[in-house]
Amino acid sequence: MASVRLDNLCKNFGAVLAVDGVSLEIPDGELMALVGPSGCGKSTLLRLIAGLEEVTRGIFF
What we know:
Layout (H helix, E strand, L loop, with lengths): L3 E10 L2 E11 L15 H9 L6 E4 L1
Antiparallel strand pairs: 1-2, 1-3
């Protein structure tokens, strides 16, 4: 596995801001859970990390 780092990650769908300024670092071997209400951007964030969606703004390593 590899570490994941997000710096000020944003994703827009037209005028809708789905993910706004997410910054986090997940070290190699760590487990992480995303929790929140429906429509808050959890699945969109996972799709960005997986490379299934294009990042609008920010850096992903």
